[in-house]
Amino acid sequence: MRIVYSYYVLDIVHRGHLKMMENAKAIAGKDGKLIVGILTDEAVMEKKPKPILSFDERFDLANALKYVDLVVAQETYSPLPNVKKIKPDILMESTSHDEEAIEEARKFMEKIGGEVIIIPHFPSQSSANIKNQIKK
């Protein structure tokens, strides 16, 4: 059974999130599992403004999505603490994330026999952009 780990803020759920989760679940395979980390407010605020939705709301939204098998709290912006505990076969990353952080994750994943798969980030599918459009 293949385990895939993917992580999100999920303040505003949009097609980009759904496509990434759909792809992650496909990579896990029919008998595989997709574990989704939802960043706590504190983790988000390491790099971004505090989410509008509470952590509990964002956690529940992730749990309701059909591609997701398990939701866990991610207490740092970096997925590494969760990845070190879960030891997934695949860590999903986005081209929107810091290259140094991705490289650090890649080194750990290789050490445990796993891999990092990087999915393109589509700026048109962005919670920040959606929030800015609402403000206008």
Q: What fraction of residues sit in β-strands?
A: 15-25%
User: What's the pLDDT, averaged over the residues?
Assistant: 91
| SS field, number of helical segments | 6
Number of strands: 5
Radius of gyration: 14 Å
Content-based structural category: alpha/beta
Largest sheet: 5 strands, parallel
> Which regions have little confidence, pLDDT < 50, spanning 5+ residues?
none
List the secondary-structure elements in sequence, H or E.
Answer: EHEHHEHEHEH
Envelope shape: globular
Descriptive notes:
The protein is an alpha/beta fold and 136 residues long. The chain has one domain (3-135): HUPs (Rossmann fold). It contains six helices and five strands, in the order E-H-E-H-H-E-H-E-H-E-H. It has helices at residues 15-28, 41-44, 55-64, 80-86, 99-111, 127-135; strands at 3-8, 33-39, 70-74, 90-94, 115-119. The protein has a five-stranded parallel sheet, with helices on both faces. Helix 5 (99-111) links the parallel strand 4 and strand 5. The chain is globular and about 45 Å long.
How do the strands and helices of this protein lay out in sequence?
Blueprint: E1 3-8, H1 15-28, E2 33-39, H2 41-44, H3 55-64, E3 70-74, H4 80-86, E4 90-94, H5 99-111, E5 115-119, H6 127-135
Parallel strand pairs: 1-2, 1-4, 2-3, 4-5
Question: Top keywords for this entry?
Answer:
single chain; 136 residues; alpha/beta; Rossmann fold; 5-stranded parallel beta sheet; 6 helices; globular
